[in-house]
Design brief:
The protein is built from seven helices and five strands; from the N terminus they run ααβαβαβαββαα. The longest helix has 25 residues. It is 57% helix and 19% strand.
Length: 177
């Protein structure tokens, strides 16, 4: 359900609440209708939020270390590069927490030149951070859609941001197969 449908649903709920306030409906029916309307509004809001999520999580068919290797290969084959890498698992092990997790800063110098030429504040979103982690015996690759951050920096980034989203999707899905 998209946000316009959610808004229509909420508007319809408001209209029905007006009927209840006029006393046209008996009290027991008013209470039942009020509960139903409230549940519908919550469902509409939750569904709209879920559809609008900018977090992408892909389950890998590989082990953690094989996913790391596959990600690096997929980055290169998609004409991008790793511009930075953080072994968060190793850093967190200093605190006593043991987990498998690595972040990669993934970008394209060619696209970066265009983006930074338009607005140096593009550095808030680029390069894209891609995280690989293991949880419950499974390995995942996740990232926040670059478009969700780039378009907040400037609406002028919309077209480029869509291309970056597509590229990162190709990279992560290629690595997860």
């Amino acid at each position: 359900m998209n946000t316009s449908i959610a808004r229509e649903s909420i508007a319809e709920n408001d209209k029905n609440k007006d009927l209840m306030d006029t006393g046209i409906l008996p009290k027991s029916r008013r209470a039942a209708l009020a509960a139903l309307l409230a549940a519908g509004s919550l469902l509409a809001s939750a569904t709209a939020f879920a559809d609008g999520s900018n977090f992408v999580k892909v389950e890998s068919t590989h082990s953690f270390s094989s996913t790391i290797s596959a990600l690096k290969t997929s980055i290169t084959s998609n004409k991008m590069m790793v511009m930075g890498q953080i072994n968060q698992g190793r850093v967190l092990s200093m605190t006593g927490l043991h987990l498998q997790g690595e972040s990669f800063l993934v970008g394209s110098p060619v696209m970066g030149k265009k983006a930074f030429g338009m607005d140096p504040a593009a550095g808030v979103a680029l390069p894209t951070r891609v995280y690989v982690w293991e949880q419950g015996g499974k390995t995942y690759i996740g990232y926040i859609k670059p478009s969700s951050v780039l378009t907040q920096v400037s609406p002028g980034f919309a077209k480029m941001a869509g291309m970056v989203d597509q590229k990162i999707t190709m990279v992560t899905e290629g690595a997860a197969k």
